[in-house]
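idk why but the lab printer keeps eating my pages so im just putting this in chat instead. protein + 3UK:
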Amino acid sequence: MKPHRRAADLALRYNAISILEHNLEDRADKTAVLTPDRDSTFRNVSDEVNRVGNALLGVGLQPGESVAILLPDTTEWATTFFACLKTGTVAVGINTLLTPRELAQILRESRARVLVVHHTLLAGALPSPEDPSFVEHVVVVGGGAHTTAGGGQANTATSAGTATAPTIGGPTIHDWVTWIADEPSTLEATDTHREDFATLNFSSGTTGEPKGIYHTHADLALTAQLWGVDVLGLQADDLTFSVAKLFFAYGLGGNLVFPWYVGGSAVLYSGSPRVATDVLGVIDRFKPTILFNAPTGYASILAVEAFSERYDLSSLRLGVSAGEALPAPLWHRFKEQTGVELLDGIGSTENFHIFVSNRPGDVRPGSSGKPVAGYECRIVDTEGKAVSPGKVGNLHVKGETAALFYLHDSERSRQTFLGEWLNTGDKYTVDEDGYYWHAGRSDDMLKVGGIWVSPVEVESVLVEHESVLECAVVGAVDDAELVKPKALVVLKEGSRDAAGDKLAQELIDHCVERMAAYKRPRWVEFVDELPKTATGKIQRYRLR
Ligand code: 3UK
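predcted complex ->
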């Protein structure tokens, strides 16, 4: 494909399905995606994309409408995603770790009319009377042909392509295999503008509520070129493997859009990122050339005894680290034990992907590297004036792949999307050689294992516990110098004598039962009081 580094290099009427379909010209029978269950060629993938696209049109979906994807990383994730591009509908990749409440909120905000969901996630995803949604069709993957609804309020479609009107009381449930079985494997791409929305991702806000971020067809192609090709040097003989899931922009770009843009292949892994031996097993078995992971993921690999002798990692030519800052000691230890150079780069859902990055052969360990060509950066004070060199300031970035707004949040949008510039919310310094160094966030948000944790959300769960009077959650660093949540807890009068390891564990368990486990505090410290402002607001910065 002709390289395009600016939106204007793309045709005005552009559909990002070409990222998949250009491969049909000269490598249709090459393996495009490898999974433990099945391998598929570009032709197989394209046929399935067309079937899914026809099924979407068959239930009456129109361009611009949303399709929710709640699946582990599987071939169905990929084919549903590209079917959305091809039909001009918007793919909403949803975090599989969310609570039913968060999920319901995303389904409602996105107005998704179709939900494609794995059978293991179905129970938490069906609309309830308290959380009504706009979902009319639920397509269940992996459930076998005779799926029945968990909630007892939905209706099962009986044959392929059944496009029954939404039935009172709940959506129509389809089995994936049946849903697409009789659909034609040819489909005309919807005529989309390059600036039509292609994806909608939800990223956590400061109080834990999700912020909806749209990206266009052009953004996918531009990030693929600007970072995937121009920085990473992706090529057709690359095989990518991302521990970060496809529902994150990080995983979606790195492990689907970018490799296919250059004719490379991807390994999809549906297991947990936290089990390092499984991750190592995938590398050993599939022999990827590029690994995408978060710093915590690299730390957990390093924690596996003699991992570089027990697993063959020799296929790796590079590792990418993003989501949170990669401490220099981790970089050095990984290099020493594997010979693999890690490239730390900062990306954001707002920009779709990485915009400041280290480069192969040009890494300054501990830094985020230099701005990626196509993006401009500035470091400014709160008035927007440039800070003097070497001083910490707010990082603003300018580039064509920036989103335009947060869905249904004009106030926050105005604070973040400043015309051509985007306020990242990150504190940075630049050294004399032009490398950017992360210096924390300007809000209280924590990145834990590359995923957002809102201290406010964890606090609100902790105070539900009968012993807790008030609390504050802050970031503290573990042995690998990575940030994890720590809770400072003031106990109620009658519970003060219980302060100790047992109660600390009970509070941690309390959090695990009510939130995704990565949000739990790793340490609980009992204190007599918390520092407050004159207006009674907890001063988290004093606790850090
Ligand atoms: C933080 C980093 C230091 C930073 C992402 C790669 O993480 C991604 O997107 P999110 O929207 O979070 C964005 C925020 O995460 N961050 C990310 N990478 C780094 N901090 N060093 C890093 N290398 O606070 C940023 O504002 O979840 C990462 C590609 C695509 C992405 N969307």
